Amino acid sequence: MKNLRRLALVAGIALSAVAFSPKAQAQTADIDFNGTVPSNCTINFGTGGTLAASPTVPERAILSEDIAGVPGNINVTCGGGVVFTVASVTDTGTSLTSGSYATNVDGVFAKVVDTATNTNVAYGEVSPSGRAALLNNPPGVPGPLQAGPIVNKNYGVWLSLFNIAGRTLSPGNYSVRVSVSLAPQ
Asked: Are 51 and 58 contacting, i.e. CB atoms less than 8 angstroms apart?
């Protein structure tokens, strides 16, 4: 009789476990995905510029934007917006008949210009001799955002090399590099 009671007790517990167990519930899982399509920029080509004597003060300035001078050019394609920066303005082998680039040149001003709108998009100004008052546009300062997308668009790179009043430029061959960087946004 004891075995029968044990068997009935075990059977009752097993039956109650089955009878009172909750139904299986439907469940969900949220799987998130994230990704970024990077904005990229390509410099399709760049061309060098030519410095020529200024028609108004030929003894003191050579420029890339006057009658005989030719601006450099950067042709750009960007999937989004871009920020231009004149990263540096450096002498790359100026050869003068007297003096040197560092002592003879008072100011070298570079700028990047949107040629479609004639809008300045970046500046870089240096004074090798320390005599020129700069306009708070040192190299390395990013310009304003240029909205994208940009497709096969030309940007001029202009350069002015000059001495202040009363100082003439030494005769010779002036060679200057303007490094322009692009930061996709």
From this structure: no
